[in-house]
Amino acid sequence: MINVSEIFGENVFNLDVMREKLPKDVFRSLKKTIDEGKPLDSSIAGAVAHAMKEWAISKGATHYTHWFQPMTGVTAEKHDSFISPTQDGKVIMEFSGKELVVGEPDASSFPSGGVRATFEARGYTAWDPTSYAFIKEGTLYIPTAFYSYTGEVLDKKAPLLKSMEALNKQALRILRLFGNTTAKRVVPTVGPEQEYFLIDRKMYDARKDLVYTGRTLFGAKPPKGQELEDHYFGAIKQRVSAFMHDLDVELWKLGILAKTKHNEVAPAQHELAPIFAITNVACDHNQLTMETMKRVAAKHGLYCLLHEKPFAGVNGSGKHNNWSMSTDTGVNLLDPGSTPAENGQFILFLTAVIKAVDEYQDLLRMSVASAGNDHRLGANEAPPAIVSMFLGEELTEVIDALEHDVKYRGKGKQVMKLGVDTLPDLPKDTTDRNRTSPFAFTGNKFEFRMLGSTFSIAGPNIIINTIVADALRGFADELEAAPDFNAALHDLVVRTIKEHKRIIFNGNNYTDEWTKEAKKRGLLNLRNSAEALPHFADKKNIEMFERNQVFTEREVVTRTEIMLENYGKVLTIEALTMIEMGKKDIYPAVNEYILELCKVIRSKKAACEDIDVSAEQAAVKKLSAANEAMYGKIGEIEQLLVDVKGCEGAEATAKFFADKIIPVMQEMRAYADEMELNTAKKYWPFPTYGDILFSV
Predict the structure, then answer these.
(1) Are 94 and 82 within 8 A, CB to CB?
(2) Residue 525's Cα: distance from chain center in Å?
(3) Do residues 348 and 489 lie in contact, with contact meaning Cβ atoms separated by under 8 Å?
(4) Is residue 497's pLDDT more than 90?
């Protein structure tokens, strides 16, 4: 019997452990850094390192690693042992303050967009004391930022921390205007819902496309999929339940607040949702969650698929990002509250989010762009590629009343003036949720629904934090200079609503009518990654990042290059895998079946000359035509992969893939999937969708 309260966080160097292991003055200093974002006192590093080492060794650790998040989408680690030699040929276990604070991994092999030359190896990791160290498989993991020899950030943690600080700075300015002098810090919080597929490991190993790309490049729709809607929230199968139990235990040991687990819509699809946490911690925890999912799945003879669209025609996997802002005194700034003063404050923060989402739709769309996620967005299983906001009927009514100075039909039917003393109580969102909305208000937070399941949540949250900080910056500049705060507040809110209300849409985002309406409103429709990613480096966006000290122009340009290059690399691997599977597996397998059919025709004719063999002949003709057509598409893809090398720059390459290569890959797949439906099972060279989705 597992005692959750006893095992929770047992492998984490958390506050309780620090309080026990550290001298009181050292603990107070470190806690101040963690709680208030104060610079780390370098003089305490040695004491912290010693306590951390002793604790880690007592838990069976022999090594330590600076755990960082380069621009690969996954984490990186280099393990060093605690051992140091002695003069008598023995060893002692040592770990210094310097080793805790700074590491030096090779930076040459990580994506840098040109910031680093491949012959320049030096890079550094810097300890992030706001995210707790932890033990995993005999190693002490120290969360760190990663940066180059020349000071440019090479990871996702450093800019995330910068975006959090930008939001903190501007949000505190707003709170001070409302008379709040007690809050010392504002932090964004996130709860990421993680969707995934769980399949038998043997099925995974038998599919080259899953092994090489994470998704199936071929596969006909099985007779039964998700049509009966019998999997969603259904009874969890025993083997899956055992996996989920072990996963929960491992995550709880790491201090991760794994809360909810259930079956998702598609067969073999599931979801894990945690309780929200401070954003940088939530990001670390989500990366750990994805790693742990794969590790635990392997122990159960399973494989965890995190790709956004592992199976065509079946619901893909997303990662809903539940974002809010809270003070260190426990106040959620996106909670409507129950007093007029709080309501005025809430309305201003809400308006800042509206302004931010409208002005920087391109950045939000860019932040969720990837080759994998392109298969989900707009596929009636995820929000469309058009960014919009859902506020619900009641909040929209509040916004409309403010804009037009008319009676609010809620409590008291009061005229909506934003003089703090006249604003009525506001309701939390009590209307139905809108699953089609990309950015939906859900009572006291916004749910950004466009993220793909493989995503590090750092990227999208860097964007959300920074654009909201920028909106708050403009608001604070205006209100701090105003002679009459209440009048200026009302005018600012009304003006902002009028300028940015186009982004609010409470209807069905899946309809063609909305696409037309969005175009009429001037909203962007960036259909794929090749269209979305270049907007990162738009002039207005670079200026906004520099204004808030999150990215420099060089860092934005290089990251744009990295993302575009990655898009091309992913699609190159997919195209080459299709070629290999088509040539070496599908084409010969179908020909073998055709040969068998021809033998049947000859045998039947030999036995009885006038026997009807029209069915076999039709099958031979149909399969032969499709097989030759598929082989022709292989040749086209091969030539296009040669042609794409002539493109100048990553952007042109990405566009060539999107416009030229992907359509031919889809045509090739159509021929293969048709042949799967018409080829005897014993001849088909790899497991089908039916085999895979119902294997557990």
Answers:
(1) yes
(2) 20
(3) yes
(4) yes
Q: What is the CATH number of domain 194-317?
A: 3.30.590.10
- Give pLDDT tens digits for 576-632: 999 999 999 999 999 999 999 999 999 999 999 889 999 999 999 999 999 999 999
Confidence of residue 414 (pLDDT cuts 50, 70, 90): very low
Cβ atoms of 45 and 138 closer than 8 Å: no
3-state SS track over 51-110: HHHHHHHHCCCCEEEEEECECCCCCECCEEECEEECCCCCEEECCCHHHHHEECCECCCC
What CA–CA distance (Å, rounded) separates 9 from 18?
Answer: 13
Q: Judge contact between 690 and 645, C-beta under 8 A.
A: no
| C-alpha to C-alpha distance for 651 and 532, rounded to whole angstroms | 10
Q: Given pLDDT bands bounded at 50, 70 and 90, which one contains residue 408?
A: low
| Amino acid in position 217 | L
Long-range contacts of 259-265 (CB under 8 A, 24+ apart): 261/236, 262/233, 262/236, 263/231, 263/232, 263/233, 263/234, 263/236, 264/195, 264/231, 264/232, 264/315, 264/317, 265/226, 265/229, 265/231, 265/232, 265/315, 265/381
Which ranges in 509-613 belong to alpha helices (H)?
512-521, 529-532, 539-547, 553-581, 587-607
Q: Mean pLDDT across the chain, nearest whole number? A: 91
3-state SS string over 141-182? EEEEEEEECCCCECECHHHHHHHHHHHHHHHHHHHHHCCCCC
* Residue type at position 244: M
User: Start-end ranges of CATH 3.10.20.70 in the chain?
Assistant: 4-154
pLDDT band at 120 (very low <50, low <70, confident <90, very high): low
CB 204 within 8 A of CB 211: yes
pLDDT (tens digit per residue) in 305-316 = 999 999 999 999
Distance CA 620, CA 597 (A): 7
Q: Which residue has the tokens 């920087």?
A: 360
**CATH 3.30.590.10 residue ranges for the chain:** 194-317
Q: In whole angstroms, give the CA distance from residue 364 to residue 319.
A: 14
Q: For the residues 352-375, what does the mean pLDDT come to? A: 97
**Confidence at residue 430, expressed as pLDDT on a 0 to 100 scale:** 54
Backbone Cα Rg of the chain? 28
Q: What is the pTM of this model?
A: 0.94
Token digits of residue 1: 């019997």
- Neighbour tally for 645: CB within 10 Å: 8
Q: How far is the C-alpha of 488 from the C-alpha of 12, rounded, in Å? A: 48
421 pLDDT tier (thresholds 50, 70, 90): very low
CATH for 565-693?
A: 1.20.120.1560
DSSP 402-427: HHHT-B-SSGGG-B----TTTPPP--
Check if the beta carbon of residue 410 is closer than 8 Å to that of residue 395: no
Where in the chain do CATH 1.20.120.1560 domains reside?
565-693
**Residue range 523-537: mean pLDDT, rounded:** 97
Q: Quick check: 179 pLDDT over 60?
A: yes
* Fold adopted by 4-154: Ubiquitin-like (UB roll) (3.10.20)
